[in-house]
Amino acid sequence: MNLLGTWLTDRMDLQLHLYQLKILIRIVKKKYRDFRLQGVLDSTLNSKMYETVRNRLTLEEATASVREGGMQGVSMKDSDEEDNNH
């Protein structure tokens, strides 16, 4: 998560491409779910860096939804629906 946070911080003034955004959302959500299933404590998972990455991806998602007219089922919102469809 630290690597991803650093990468996003280095590109703070650049908007993510829609493809980058979709992949990053999937990576972050899958990583979070997998570690949670393995018993990692919420206090560890919900680190400052995770919150920073999550906030950035949520903002990028909102911008892309307006610009592109939707994200076709990929979202930072908490839902297992997309995992069952892919």
Structural overview:
The protein is 69% helix and 0% strand. With 86 residues, it is mainly α. The radius of gyration is 13 Å and the shape is globular. It starts with a helix and ends with a helix. 13% of the residues are buried. Residues 80-86 have low confidence and may be disordered.
Approximately what portion of the residues adopt beta-strand conformation?
A: under 5%
- Could you give the distance between the termini? 23 Å
Estimated radius of gyration:
13 Å
* Beta strand count: 0
Name the shape in a single word.
Answer: globular
Unreliable spans are: 80-86
Structural class: mainly alpha
The percent of residues in helical segments reads 55-70%
Report the sheet with the most strands, covering strand number, pairing sense and barrel closure. Answer: none
GO cellular component, one term: presynapse
Organism: Eleginops maclovinus
Pfam family, one: MUN
Domain MUN: 1-35
Write a brief structural summary.
InterPro entries: CAPS, MUN_dom. This protein has helices at 2-10, 18-37, 42-45, 48-68, 81-85.
Keywords:
single chain, 86 residues, mainly alpha, disordered C terminus
Question: What is the strand and helix layout of this fold?
Answer:
Layout lengths: L1 H9 L7 H20 L4 H4 L2 H21 L12 H5 L1
Helix pairs in contact: 1-4, 2-4
